[in-house]
């Protein structure tokens, strides 16, 4: 499947000359060696108004970025897992306020870190069960080993969870291990980017009776025509993965991280395991923009999509007020969080040209997407540079897209 511009940008309210600024700007990243290559897609009201690519998917092999290049989308997997869960919600399988221990009994008696070190933590019983909406909104109290900000993060690393999982451990095994570790805070009391969506993936498996891989393929990817999206591939179209060189920040190939996404993984990571193409993920954004339907196939009702893309942080505050000031795939100022997506609550506070109500997320290798219901604009950016905090790509892309929107 390929992506081509299928409308005159002017008919969709874009200035074609201003759209060219996008490519000129990001071409410099490649020219300066800061990115190996990239692919960008901008749409409006279902039409592709801008589609471009530059550089290489594999610099050392001289393989260029092509229309069908495969990308590790890492945490852009999370919205897919969230959609899967909400499909089951619509079938009456659970309520958002249900304790997850009903399906995942290993979480029946979670304990919460109070004080102490990673080796000798003091904990107390959770006063609130972890509920389904806590997983969807990252308010569960779970964490990530790569945060390096809390003693519980160190406990995750000691258990083998930093940028992955111990070899041979499947999703059920990972969830069982996480359930043995203390929570960072009482469920529902704060926001913390975490393995919550991986646990949600296991929840989908238990509720549906299917592996997450099967559920995605049969109930989301095949119906939406996402023919190139899966957990791991053996395909030369998959780009190499790069990290910034200390000091120069030039992109340097990293074979250890690059193994991720090649071949079948030991566990289906609903939080970051998918490989996809620009064409496939564009279809996913159009499905969201259209309120849960694409090409006559409806997977979610529009009221469900509206609920998922509303800010679920208590008091309608932003992440700066409710979240821990750690790494996430979005800024904290002016952004709240829904059920699987960041939600732009205040464009002025966020200092962005995007619209209130925009929902989005990104991946660790500097990929990103957003959907803007107010203007009908969708945008995608793909590259393979880890971590995503290396360059301000997402804010730059927002500003470059919206400066070109003139009608």
Describe the model.
There is one protein chain. The protein has 407 residues and is of the alpha+beta class. It is built from 13 helices and 16 strands. Helix 2 (78-90) packs parallel to helix 6. It starts with 15 loop residues before the first helix and ends with a helix.
Largest sheet: 8 strands, antiparallel
Uncertain residue ranges: none
Helix content: 25-40%
Sheet with most strands: strand arrangement: 3-2-1-16-15-14-13-12
Rg, nearest Å: 20 Å
Percent strand equals 15-25%
Shape: globular
**Helix and strand pattern:** HEEEEHEEHHHHHEEHEHEEHHEEHEEEH
Total beta strand runs:
16
Structural class: alpha+beta
Average pLDDT value?
Answer: 95
Number of helices: 13
Termini Cα gap: 30 Å
Protein name: Beta-lactamase family protein
Organism: Amycolatopsis acididurans
InterPro entries: Beta-lactam-related, Beta-lactam/transpept-like, Diverse_Enzym_Activities
Q: What are the SSEs and their pairings?
A:
Layout: H1 16-31, E1 37-44, E2 47-58, E3 63-64, E4 71-72, H2 78-90, E5 111-116, E6 121-125, H3 132-137, H4 151-158, H5 171-180, H6 196-208, H7 212-224, E7 242-244, E8 251-253, H8 255-258, E9 275-276, H9 278-289, E10 293-294, E11 297-298, H10 302-308, H11 319-322, E12 335-337, E13 342-344, H12 347-350, E14 359-362, E15 368-372, E16 377-382, H13 393-403
Antiparallel strand pairs: 1-2, 1-16, 2-3, 4-9, 5-6, 7-8, 10-11, 12-13, 13-14, 14-15, 15-16
Domain Beta-lactamase-related: 22-397
Protein name: Beta-lactamase family protein
InterPro entries: Beta-lactam-related (IPR001466), Beta-lactam/transpept-like (IPR012338), Diverse_Enzym_Activities (IPR050789)
């Amino acid at each position: 499947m390929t992506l081509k511009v299928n409308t005159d940008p002017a008919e969709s309210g874009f200035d074609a000359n201003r759209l060219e600024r996008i490519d000129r700007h990001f071409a410099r990243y490649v020219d300066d060696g800061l990115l190996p290559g990239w692919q960008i897609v901008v749409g409006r009201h279902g039409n592709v108004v801008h589609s471009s690519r530059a550089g290489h998917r594999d610099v050392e092999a001289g393989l260029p970025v092509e229309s069908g290049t495969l990308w590790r989308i890492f945490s852009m997997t999370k919205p897919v897992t969230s959609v899967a869960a909400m499909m089951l919600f619509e079938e009456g399988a659970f309520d958002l306020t249900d304790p997850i221990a009903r399906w995942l009994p290993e979480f029946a008696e979670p304990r919460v870190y109070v004080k102490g070190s990673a080796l000798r933590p003091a904990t107390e019983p959770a006063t609130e069960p972890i509920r389904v909406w806590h997983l969807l909104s990252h308010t569960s109290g779970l964490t990530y080993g790569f945060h390096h900000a809390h003693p519980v993060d160190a406990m995750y690393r000691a258990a083998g969870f930093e940028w992955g999982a111990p070899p041979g451990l499947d999703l059920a095994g990972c969830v069982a291990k996480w359930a043995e570790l203390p929570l960072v805070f009482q469920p529902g009391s704060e926001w913390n980017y975490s393995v919550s969506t991986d646990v949600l993936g296991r929840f989908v498996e238990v509720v549906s009776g299917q592996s997450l891989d099967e559920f995605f393929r049969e109930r989301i990817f095949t119906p939406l025509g996402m023919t190139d999206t899966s957990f791991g591939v053996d395909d030369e179209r998959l780009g190499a993965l790069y990290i910034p060189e200390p000091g120069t920040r030039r992109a340097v190939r990293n074979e250890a991280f690059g193994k991720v996404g090649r071949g079948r993984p030991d566990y289906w990571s609903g939080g970051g395991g998918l490989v996809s193409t620009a064409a496939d993920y564009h279809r996913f954004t159009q499905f969201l923009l259209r309120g849960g339907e694409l090409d006559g196939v409806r997977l979610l009702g529009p009221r469900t999509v509206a609920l998922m893309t509303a800010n679920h942080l208590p008091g309608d505050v932003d992440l700066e007020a409710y979240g821990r000031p750690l790494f996430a795939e979005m800024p904290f100022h002016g952004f709240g969080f829904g059920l699987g997506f960041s939600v732009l609550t205040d464009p002025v506070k966020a200092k962005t040209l995007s619209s209130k109500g925009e929902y989005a997320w990104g991946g660790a290798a500097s990929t990103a997407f957003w959907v803007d219901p107010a203007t009908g604009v969708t945008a995608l950016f793909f590259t393979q540079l880890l971590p995503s905090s290396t360059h301000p790509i997402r804010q730059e892309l927002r500003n470059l897209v919206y400066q070109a929107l003139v009608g």
